[in-house]
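Q: Could you write out the predicted structure for this multi-component system? I'm mainly interested in how the pieces pack against one another.
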Amino acid sequence: MNADARSVVLGRIRAALNDHPQADAAQLNAEWLALPRDYNQQGHLTEAERLDLLEDRLHDYGAEVTRVAGHEVAAAIAAVLAMRGNRPTLMPQGFPAEWTPENAALTMDDTFSTRELDRFQGVVTGATAAIAETGSLVLQDVAGQGRRAGTLIPDFHLCVVRAEDVVENVPQAFARLAATPTLPTTFVSGPSATADIEMTRIKGVHGPRFLHVLLVDG
Amino acid sequence: MLDPRTARPFPIVAAEAVRDTQMRGNVRHATEVIQNKRARVVAERGDWQALREAGKRLREHAIRNMDAYLLEFERNCTRAGGTVHWARDAAEAQAIVVKLASEAVGASAGTPTAGRPAPGEVIKIKSMTTEEIHLNGALEAAGIRPYETDLAELIIQLGQDQPSHIVVPALHKNRQQIREIFRREMQLPELGETPQELAEAARQFLREKFLRVETAISGANFLIAETGGVCVVESEGNGRMCLTLPKTLITIAGIDKVVARFRDLEVLVQTLPRSATGERMNPYNSIWTGVRPGDGPQNFHVVLLDNGRTDVLADEPARQTLHCIRCGACQNACPVYRETGGHAYGSVYAGPIGAILTPQLLGMQHAQSLPYASSLCGACYEVCPVKINIPEVLIHLRSRVVKEQAASISGRLHPEALAMRAAASVFRSERRFRAAQRAGRMAMKTMARDDGAGQPWIRSLPGYLGGWTSVRDLKAMPKQTFREWWEQRPHRTADGQDRNKPGVPDHPTGTTKQPPASVESA
């Protein structure tokens, strides 16, 4: 029955589009390449302006931002974890050793079950990219960022973003993702939120309720 | 249940809805908040019109080549470990999902939880497509309990209500009403009414279900042909929970959700959140491709649903309806929706997009009143992030309604058809037209009532004409028509200058007769 449904639906589509000649792969490609894209694709900000904009946008969502130098990352992570009471914190496989503080609260992710993940209060990761205009972090299932559940179940997400990974706009982020479009990818813009009650955005529903970004500059 | 096949006509339900002042107040408040937010974040994008144009063109490209792109999606999704199913209609989609969910639930039922076998249950992400096919009822009939996890859908499900908006289904409820539902259904007698407390209650209520239930059902915002990937756009993280934690994920997507390439999302993820919730970006966008070992569900199915979409595709002037990315901006901007709320449309797709989508998905014999549920003011077109010309499609559908009625004997003898033929005869002759105007003015005298501001209004016309005034008040005809005024005015001067042109008085003393205030063009 299912194979039949497939041919029926495809047949209906073909019949419905009989005013439009069926394009071969080369024509489809040419048609797609000719689509207008007159929106901003290049950035125009300096690096300092870009980082300021990202910080501003993240604050707008209620995230915390701390600027640190490269050699200060491990100490900054330790300080943030201490401030939050050194509660159990998850760390993905491949998290850079030079960023990792000596801290008993940190545990490397190791195929924990959902319920085991629920015992972690926090998680610390890197990011593939950050988008200044929209205040978004882009996470992928790669070393240093890990599987999606790891940044979802713990209530606090500490994300380390390097200045060179901060782009100005969304098209620039997609250009960076073009090489790895099939990896599980999550755009995170602030702590979890909802606007379902009277259209007012309020922080903190099912995803992490607290987001802290360490912006590594220099 | 919002089923356009059984729903009463829009004008009847709307007339009742506008008397619900609480609902109107809630809808007005929510749509005003969202429209202001949208206007702010749209205004800060100097390239907004370029984004709209790009969005329109890339959606048009995907829809016009839908068969090629669906096959490409199927190929790439399958290669990545997903299973693709096709469904001709709602019943077939229900059957596929119920079968898949039953198998998944059966597989996980072998693991006892606290000494009891896990009950047959699934967690769900908000999906208008699953509302369209009434999936929850089908699951329940098969002994599977669906838990809605989006806050608004949870409010609807616990309150045994119906969605009234495609982005914020519980938009018609205010915080006090939501508190009452949660107090009763979650057994929380002490619950407060701040949005924070209500969101926290939902978090507590659902947390255990996210950690326990091993099967999830989702919709999709976009299907990416180039990669076989799926994109889901959300706010609360309930989507991520459903997409990430269960062992089995079943995604239901209309065949119209396909886009050509990954890069096309760079346009749509900019325009969708700004249009939908007035945010620069919604909290979470998830993109995944098939099955990824060690990350997310290892058993992944996509059900591609037709359910009338190919009929829309076949009607060239209405085809653009399928470009819709379900942002709801047209609903928030619509002066009709803002007064009636969503339920009057008798469909999960309300507002301007619903007025064109619903009658097409169901065939024109249902929901015939919906193409008329609009003043054609064009606000919907202006805010649409993919530039769907909704007024154009509405007019096209109105002509289809009339043509389909005229095709039948009873349609030709219908009082409206007779009245239209009489009107055509009147409009063809100047003499008959003037006579009709005089007759109308005389007849009207008995019906017009002063509104207290010196304006005469007619609340109800007799006979078949009453159809017009059943849903609106009619302003009485002016005492003098434009033609009569034109004929009485002084003639042009010898040098050809129009002495009566407004703002060009022929004498400094201003003796020109001013047109009466009540003149309207006849």
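A: Regarding packing and overall arrangement: Chain B has 23 helices and 15 strands.
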